[in-house]
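Data availability excerpt. The first of two example chains:
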Amino acid sequence: MTTTPRPTGTHGPAHTAGVSGRVCAVLVALATFLVLAFVIAPRPWAASMSDGGFGDQRKLVDRLSDAFVDYWDSGDRDISPDLKKVMDYWLQYHVAKAVVAALLLLVLIALGVHLWKSLLRADGLGAGSRAALASAGGVVTALALFSLAAVMANIQGATAPLSSLLSMLPIRTPHGELAAVLDQVGQHLADYPSAGGRTPAAVEVMVGDFSRYHAVMAVAATTVAVVLIGLSVASWRKSARTAASDRRTRRVFRWFGLLSALLSLAVAVVAVANTATTADPAPALLGFFRGGW
């Protein structure tokens, strides 16, 4: 009895599964590393790229509070040296987070595509394995959305570090000079812009920066909404072009189409809200200084 030798170039299911497993393992390892880097790396990076770091959150808040009071008391438009040091640190902090979050997003997209393609090719797998692939794909998709939000938020923070830093001020529990300064800022914002030439330069700087802060998010959210709409349309078209007998593929594309459409609506709401604040930032800034955030 003779046997036909197997060609050396043939790749069977075991080989394909091995390659798939190795790709997933590498992507998961990269994603884990980037998550740790997102948490650990920004502070030392910011400290090395600016005039100095801040040991912990409490020290950052204290330095910011003192610098903000000094800037207000100076009456100048130009940012005071102490406040500029804190802003430079905060800028580099957000740059580091934005870069790491963007890399993490790319890795998660690659991992998600790999998992969903594996699910579509999982004809030889049992129901339990297919359910595990679908669950993993759903988790990775959710993590990718969180990474996208992190990219947007940190680009916003890096573009307008002053407004981003304002959220670090102890607005609800101020004390000493800071409490008096915050009260004065609120009074001037309540009259803005009717006070005309009596408006302190610092208030004008904060209002302008706050407008830019929301303009960045409006642009980012609009861009993401357009991309999501495009993905939704592409997914529904692919579903329509898929053979009726391939129900799993049609179901996956329809799921992505519906998810993209719903997300585009949510992001569009964010874009509209930030556009409105960009056009008239003073009321929103006043609400913040009165503890509305």
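And the second chain:
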Amino acid sequence: MQNDAGPTEPAVVPLEEPAGGVPDVVTSDAALASAAAALSAGTGPVAVDAERASGYRYGQRTYLVQLRRSGSGTWLVDPVAQPDLSAVDEALRGVEWVLHAASQDLPGLTEQRMTPDAVFDTELAARLLGMPRVGLAAVVADTLGLGLAKEHSAVDWSTRPLRPEWLRYAALDVEVLVEVRDVLADRLDRAGKAEWARQEFEAVRTAPPPPPRVDPWRRTSGVHAVRTARGLAVVRSLWQARDADAERRDISPGRVLPDAAIVAAAQALPTSVSQLVALKPFAGKGTRRRAEQWYAAIGEALALPDEDLPPLRGPGNPGPPPPRVWKDRDPAAAARLAAAKDVVARTREAWNVPAENLVQPDLLRRTCWAPPEPITAATLGDALTAGGARPWQVELLSGPLADALVTLE
């Protein structure tokens, strides 16, 4: 009889308690000095993690830093009580930091004056190895056969005091991270991808902060349903009022005023507070309490002269148009993109690496829309490098891409 259940997951052993217990949270100058001294005396890489309060607080501030190094044990540091962690940073000069999804944690750690000299990113390593799931719990299970609970990943880490079960969870996040790193490093080496990983890790470590977004209010969820310039002015005014209020109160903007409320007001264009609170998204107690504030923002938008209204279309990216219009606007470019995607797909299959880790989709589109002249492996390699591709990506793709695009020509 055929079994349709599919392959079974390998058994895992639950990882329930840190080997040395849950340490006290570092909040004092003396405790921070002890942590720095212990970490400096440790050996090998250091496991690092950081917890934020996404969805609860404004911005991406770090509210807990976890570190573990052989010989020093685990340390949980409160960056609210100790915002300057340069002593820990100095203790770890020249030490490799092991993080999972480093690009998420490094910006906040930089605010605490912690910047690594070398990084090993276990999530990136898992991607380069073609692992089907790259979350920390899945990677720990795959590499070590251990079960890592993630039920506290989305809690409000700005809460003080932090709950004991949250601290246990935080300590376990770095408990075996170095051991995971060692298994992944061995797999990368055997797969011939160790140098690829080194280049990717260095790119993450040295990545500059992203530039500020143009018209960030246009990212309001559901804004596509607002069809008029006056309505968009309401979206902009409410978004800006909400953002200022959220920053002042240190609350996630979505908790101050939901996107759905902004869009509803932009569609209805209420001309009084009573009309505003009659809208369903403004019926909540907290929203009604600030109705005058929100209506003042709406009134500013309604009073704008036509020439000051925002355009229906935003500035967009200074690059090629969306691929869906390429066939009409530039059939040759559409053919180049199709051929390039085929090259990337074949390379993905050959090397078991996700397509987005082989080349950024936006970079591939830009290269196909305006390719270098003449098209050669060298000129394509230069174009990819200028767009941020790493040497290993250029080496894999420039030749096959050149062959495919020249064949089209």
